[in-house]
Amino acid sequence: MSRFLVLHGPNLNLLGTREPHLYGHRTLADIDRDLDMLARDLGIEVECRQTNHEGLLVDWVQEAPQQGVAGILINPGGYAHTSVALRDAITASGLPVVEVHLSNVHAREEFRRQLMLAPVVSGVLCGLGAHGYQLGLRALAALVCEPAMDGGRVLS
Ligand code: DQA
User: How far does residue 148's CA lie from ligand 1's centre (Å)?
Assistant: First the structure.
């Protein structure tokens, strides 16, 4: 059975109470539980982790290929806009990665429009709230399990 990692970056542990007008009312536990249910339907396995630390995200991405992980769904939080290190780790992993943001980062402050990871991931979903995680996991599973539909990496 294919195994996928879901990585949540900084401040996403506060979901539910953090700026609900932007990020909604669902908690991280709600989102993870819904992903677990979807994974069962899709016949895949997911493991969800959250950290506020950039280096730990880098470690988890680096370790993923050796651990037999087939792909990563990531909400990098604020590191999406700054982290060269996380981008390099994703490139080095060679894994299909889907990036998700609850809010529409393109409709907010100018600095959120810079997405450091976007050029090296398979796809980006933003502005769809918690649906983005569900759609992102479906997309990732399809990229890995149905490669004939167009592969698991950036198309060129
Ligand atoms: C976010 C968007 C980021 O700009 C912000 O720093 C976050 C959450 C989102 O899910 O919309 O922490 O990644």
Answer: 32
Is 133 among the catalytic positions? no
Candidates 64, 51, 58; CA nearest to 88 is: 58
For the full predicted model, state whether its pTM sits above 0.90: yes
Atom of ligand 1 at shortest range from CA of 100: 10
**Cα(28)–Cα(43) distance, integer angstroms:** 22
Residues 85-100 have pLDDT tens digits of 999 999 999 999 999 9
- Quick one: tokens of 133? 């995680």
Contacts 24+ apart (CB under 8 A), 27-32: 30/130, 31/130, 31/133, 32/6
Task: Indicate whether residue 102 lines ligand 1 (CB < 6 A).
Answer: yes
